[in-house]
Design brief:
The protein is α+β, with helices and mostly antiparallel strands. Helix content is 44%, strand content 36%. It folds into two domains: 125 residues, Serine Threonine Protein Phosphatase 5, Tetratricopeptide repeat (Alpha Horseshoe), CATH 1.25.40; 163 residues, Porin (Beta Barrel), CATH 2.40.160. Helix 3 packs antiparallel against helix 4. The longest helix has 45 residues.
Length: 307
């Protein structure tokens, strides 16, 4: 009799455990289904900028959030971390959503059982982390623009002298700007250009070839608009020595602008931050004049912010 009683007792206990396990599994599935339905209905409203709609959406979402969280605590079913992470993202808690989705992906059993959820979790993590990185860059640019910006670049330059074929230059340049107030900056610049060789002039030596060296320097002001990328607009005063470098060109410097070429240029460019560092990629264009000649420069370089 005792052995029969023991067998019956063991059967009853096992049945109770099986029933409890089935009940908990059912609770986990119900919580997942409820989360899916509430996400479909209210997550879009929770992300709007209309206060009343947000409040109504949160009023519907929060009870389900509490349900899925409590069922996870009771069951330990890792797939519920995905659903809780989805609701965390829905209510704007990206930090906690990252934690839950990472924990879900760390569970090999859950990932193997729910590969579609795992793929969606990875996609959500990439999106949230990309948004967080863009926000960090934007906040850095908006909170405080660098006091000093030092830029170096190389590119192409053109000087179109009246009645002569244009001179084409390989340009190396440097800039230093200092923040004055808001987006306004004062800028000092230097450009060094090396031309292609030319032999168009009729000299005593018909085979002579020459290389034109163009040195331009000056100052100006620019407006650098902070943000995820920083557009730049400015006006530059530009000066260039115009020496008489060869005896056969005697008086040429007077004909083409004097010993010193004076002009101005408009600057347009953009600073593109390289991640969260103080270094930015800097494409830039300058269009203007030097004395009676049209000048243009197109460069690509980098800018370094201090501090």
């Amino acid at each position: 009799m005792r052995s029969l009683f023991a067998v019956l007792l063991l059967f009853v206990v096992n049945s109770l455990f099986c029933f409890a396990g089935a009940a908990l599994a059912g609770e986990a599935e119900d919580a997942a289904l409820a989360t899916h339905e509430i996400r479909q209905k209210y997550c879009a409203e929770a992300a709007t900028e209309k206060n009343t709609e947000v409040a109504k959406a949160l009023n519907e979402i929060m009870p389900v959030f509490v349900q899925v969280s409590e069922v996870y605590d009771a069951t330990g079913e890792d797939f519920l971390l995905y659903w809780r992470g989805v609701l965390q993202e829905c209510i704007g808690r990206a930090d906690l959503a990252n934690q839950d989705l990472d924990a879900f992906l760390a569970s090999e059993q859950a990932v193997a059982s729910f590969p579609d959820l795992a793929s969606d979790a990875r996609r959500r993590l990439r999106r949230m982390r990309s948004a967080a990185a863009r926000g960090a860059i934007s906040a850095r640019g908006q909170d405080k623009a660098p006091l000093f910006l030092l830029g170096f670049a190389g590119g192409y330059g053109l000087v179109a002298v009246p009645d002569i074929d244009p001179f084409h230059y390989a340009i190396a340049q440097a800039d230093l700007s200092i923040r004055l107030v808001g987006p306004l900056r004062v800028l000092a610049h230097a450009r060094l250009g090396f031309s292609e060789t030319y032999d168009e002039f009729e000299l005593d030596d018909p085979e002579a070839q020459f290389l034109s060296l163009l040195t331009v320097f000056g100052a100006g002001v620019e407006v650098r608009i902070p943000g995820p990328v920083s557009p730049r607009f400015g006006a530059l005063l530009q000066l260039a020595p115009n020496p008489d470098e060869h005896e056969d060109f005697g008086g040429g410097e007077e004909e083409y602008g004097g010993v010193f070429l004076v002009g101005a240029a408009a600057l347009i460019g953009i600073d593109i931050p390289m991640g969260t560092s103080a270094v930015s990629l800097r494409p830039q264009a300058e269009l203007g004049f030097l004395s009676t000649s049209f000048s243009a420069r197109f460069t690509l370089g980098a800018a370094f912010g201090f501090p």
